[in-house]
Design brief:
By secondary structure, the chain is of the alpha/beta class. Helix content is 31%, strand content 18%. Strand 26 and strand 27 form a beta hairpin. The N and C termini lie far apart (60 Å). Bound molecules: beta-D-glucopyranose.
Amino acid sequence: MNKQEGYSMTADKIREIISKMTLEEKAAMCSGADFWHTEAVERLGIPASMVSDGPHGLRKQDQEGDHLGVNDSIKAVCFPAGCGTAASFNRELLVKMGEVLGEECQAEGVSVILGPAVNIKRSPLCGRNFEYYSEDPLVASEMAGALIHGVQSKHVGTSIKHFLANNQETRRMSSDSRVDERTLREIYLAAFEGAVKKEKPWTVMCSYNKINGTYAAQNHKYLTEVLRDEWGFDGYVMSDWGAVNSRVEDLKAGLDLEMPTSMGANDKLIVGAVQSGELDESVVDTAVERILNIVFRYEENRDKQAVFDRDQDHEMARKVAEETVVLLKNEGVLPLAENDQIAFIGKYAAKPRYQGGGSSHINSHKVTSAWDIAQAMGNVTYAQGFDDKEDKVDEKLFAEAVEAAGKAKAAVIFAGLPDAFESEGFDREHMAMPSCQNELIRQVSQVQPNTVVVLHNGSPVEMPWAGQVKGILEAYLGGQAVGGAVCDILFGRVNPSGKLPETFPLRLEDNPSYLSYIGEGDMVEYREGIFVGYRYYDKKKMDVLFPFGHGLSYTTFAYANLRTDKEQMKDTDVMKVSVDVTNTGKMTGKEVVQLYVADKESTVIRPVKELRDFVKVELEPGETKTVTFTLDKRAFAYYSVRIHDWHVESGTFDILIGKSSRDIVLTKEVRVESTVELPFVYTTDTIMGDVLKDSRAREIVKDLLKLDIFGGEKPEQETDAASEAISEDMNAAMAKFMPLRGAVSFGGNVSMGDIQAIVDKLNGLA
Ligand code: BGC
């Protein structure tokens, strides 16, 4: 590609253009010209700029626009959806996929692709989970960052979405996500943070919902204070389609571009607000400058030679799909032998469910099913088994399937969730698969001991049959080339290497958000707080169906020599962690090395462990590679609402290396010292136990300590050393929860004024 490094349109030139624009032209620039374009101003050489969905392919609508994928878009290539690409845990792969998407956009004249979508999978029920990456913010942020990197390397923008706390489809345009500060920081903001800071997406799309009472579109705190002031975002913020509720207030909050067009209605409001003095014109100028920066950044780096080679990109989609498949269970049944008689069963063998419904829906130029590929082998048969239009047992289809299974050496059932179960715009009602499919799996596995289930779904399902089948492959919604990838894995031509980016609970009721999902009316309280996904299941020591990070291979890996470059560090330092991984099996394979950190003793409530990094490595049989991670403060920190910042509590931490969150193979203890002292404000309500945590405070409260309610500490000369130690321990235990003001209530013969004077002295310590 003919790349032009840097951007020639300087800020000064853009400002000069803006100075020549009328107020009306500037207001119009702040909203779409139509469904997919920004406004053009021909007399000033400002071109219209096209944006298109996203995230896992190009949904470019030439004719009539809509935001739910109802009308046709151009023929394009459907890559695996976010649920699957996250399972690859492969950043380099996502960079490559991004490069292909960027190239497609260049060829089609699209300036910004609307994705990636990083919303946390809070509940398995969210209808749009298939587009999202993970229950873990690090995975979401890292995979998104890689995709952004790839797309933007082709001088095409991305729009990381939907900012913020948009974790359900029910009432998505009116719901109010009530989330506490720490949870927002550690989970929901964190999914965006790393990608925004590291990869600088050209645009951010705000979500429809409210966050703690204020619409995302109108939320100055998140659109400006966090996104721009803290994270350094310098592109433009656009609304989700129709998310603008109060145009002038939204503009003030930091929402630059309204999409789609408001047919001029909101432009008039902006003009009126400037004229009446309610809105400073400089706010409009700033928004226009941000939009034009991106418009010209794209325009000046157009690649007129770019081609959208659909067949070539289909092959890339297949490569990506290979790494998104997760081998959940394998009791010696996989890989299948190339020449054995195999029965493919289930509608999705011939018509895979490979994408979800809504705005991400791609008009695929071709789709390859597993049956398309396997037919040529000659030893594979196909029986439909079920239809997914309604959940009904079709006796004839069942009988054919059971008969085919009985005759074969092994049966592979392609099952999962029908289209009607997973889509943008509504949530699932339960976590079950259609019962006719569950019944089919049961019946087939009764006649065929070598039964394998291949699943197509964007989010966890219950598997009542998990114990009755020998193999389970989670193929997610693997894009238009998924059939080839699944076939290659089934027959061992490709070694599976995906890992679950989410926990599969045994049943929906186990999920931490179960009690409060989907809220009451518009009010959605995130009552589980930071305990999302494995953070909850681990803390509760619950059994799960398949844990976060789980995924098997056809080879085996051994881990050794976990080491760090230091035993202890300050929170301003970094620590290098290395581990050796060896392929101890007979097949080349890829392993996702997962690093978790556990805070061993903490005064704040924390998860048992949290994923802090991961690396995917490819190893030949017998080969060993050293994997090295670099951990900084953030790896050990929690978000302190006392200082509104990340904080490490001094102490010991375990560094854990795992094959999954429940299969930790190596552990090493390290120590981290904080360089930040949390401020502590004493009041008359402060309990004595907290006062005595600061050794310097003892002198100030020494007279109170003589009182019985605080343990009745005797002056040193009156007690011998041994009895003092005993009485101090006992007294301290009894007295530590007594507030300082207790001295007034419980006969200490002191006044509230005396206590206040002590409090003032204590506060003077800082
Ligand atoms: C979706 C966005 C999408 C937009 C444009 C909205 O309904 O939430 O993800 O990018 O439509 O199609």
